[in-house]
Specification:
The chain is mostly helical. It is 61% helix and 0% strand. It is built from 13 helices and no strands. Helix 2 packs parallel to helix 4. The longest helix has 23 residues. The chain starts with a helix and ends with a helix. 32% of the residues are buried. The model has no long low-confidence stretch (mean pLDDT 88).
Length: 244
């Protein structure tokens, strides 16, 4: 039901010029195009974890690895069309996105391992503003960002979402904010970890689906409210750890 709902919602928005923030390049996914491509060791490890988790949740069948690899390699080729060429000494700007694509993997699981559905959804989704915040590889070396932002190697999620999380945390949960301040560890660091991993390893699968759906339906600012609500939920534990 969730797969159908987000599919229809994103399809509807991506056809409206007013709702499309990014342009859509012409890209057709073909097996032949990615035949000679390969995934990095980090991505291969991520694929193994995703497939293992998907089978545990009874969402994936045998040979799902091939479908997920197809999705990831096509996403990389599709997003490359909208990337700048950057000369930088930073490792994260040398070539491909350094981490694993947790968002595309989450969508693959929501779509029950259907590679065509997943790719069609991601291509349409990439036109919407929310894709910049939920799908981190979306803005890797992106031509949609000012060159100075690209060269800094800092993702907009860090100076947009994480910045607002810290501001709200100070106003809403001052004790938690103080606890972080005393520890010398910033809330934005842990939030960036949560957001990058789509809350994998932190929340149950149903909650991960709720997070993705809420941000798609209600807007990217709900990513901020979600993190604040997690901190509110963890407040007593955080304060206990601070005392100890």
């Amino acid at each position: 039901v969730l797969a159908e709902l987000i599919e229809k919602f994103v399809s509807h928005l991506s056809e409206s010029r007013m709702d499309c923030y990014f342009s859509l390049g012409n890209y057709k996914a073909m097996d032949a195009d990615v035949k000679n491509e390969s995934l990095s060791s980090v991505q291969q490890l991520g694929v193994e974890m995703t497939v293992r988790y998907g089978k545990y949740l009874n969402l994936l069948k045998e040979h799902a690895e091939n479908g997920l690899c197809f999705v990831l390699m096509n996403c990389e080729k599709f997003l490359k069309q909208q990337q700048r060429t950057v000369v930088s000494s930073l490792c994260c700007l040398r070539e491909r996105y350094a981490g694993y694509d947790w968002f595309a993997s989450s969508v693959f699981l929501i779509m029950s391992g259907d590679r065509e559905k997943t790719l069609t959804f991601l291509q349409r989704f990439s036109r919407l503003l929310v894709s910049a915040f939920l799908w981190l590889p979306r803005l890797h070396k992106s031509m949609h960002l000012p060159i100075t932002t690209v060269e800094s190697g800092i993702h907009p999620v860090y100076f947009c979402s994480a910045h607002y999380i810290e501001m709200l945390l100070k106003a809403e949960l001052p004790l938690v904010f103080s606890a972080f301040h005393m520890s010398g560890f910033t809330p934005s660091q842990i939030c960036l970890q949560w957001i990058t991993q789509c809350f994998w390893n932190y929340m149950d699968w149903s909650e991960i689906c709720h997070y993705i759906a809420i941000c798609i339906f209600l807007g990217p600012d709900y990513q901020i409210y979600m993190c604040i609500s997690v901190f509110r939920h963890l407040q007593q534990d955080i304060l206990k750890h601070t005392e100890a």
